[in-house]
Amino acid sequence: xxxxxLAILLALAAGxxxxxxxxxxTIGNFRARWLELEFRHFIIALGGGVLLGAVALVLIPEGxxxxxxxxxxxxxxxxxxxxxxxxxxxxGVRKREAPQLxxxxxxxxxxxxxxxxxxxxxxxxALLLALLIGAQNLPEGFNGYRELxxxxxxxxxxxxxxxLLLALLxxxxxxxxxxxxxxxxGVLGFIMLFASGGILYLVFQDIAPQAHLxxxxxxxxxxxxxxxIAMGGQMLQxx
Length: 239
Hints:
Helix content: over 70%
Shape: globular
Low-confidence stretches: none
Largest sheet: none
Radius of gyration: 17 Å
Number of helices: 9
Number of strands: 0
Strand content: under 5%
Distance between the termini: 24 Å
Mean pLDDT: 78
Order of helices and strands: HHHHHHHHH
Structural class: mainly alpha
């Protein structure tokens, strides 16, 4: 399989974790009362942990490598946080605030672009990034489904179809990264650092506060497990 075909396939597989997570949220056994507390918060924290792992272990190291550790890299990282903040505030003002869905799209699309660019440049981190995208999309899809059903009052089937369509954004983004960023490593690094700043903002603004649950130890351990998944993936990558 060509690198281009691999980029599209990996991005599609990672994207399909979104509707898969949504489907898991529809299973009857997941509607028990304990889900509303421990398990739901655990899943939110798990996604946050994987996101932190993706930022710390892949996006920032690769972003700095692609930019040659230029001084402006720090400004790009901070600008990403500011832009994600501005977009989130804009959505909130318009009464469309949906933290899980917003976070899922804001991290999935630039990460998929980066995935295509990394495969085009022959980076060994591409497979790890694809794994982490899928690992974070699963819990984000789970919580995003419940959020969409609660906000829109749409039927479960309609929400799942919508989430399936969202998954198709992955291959489109990966194709864009593969075709346009192969010869522009600086731009690829810019995107990864910009996305890292935005993701870090979302983790501490939306995901971490939602994961907190007083007198429960499960959610914090979910965050630790999520980061451990990212670490394990990186260790396997270099084994």
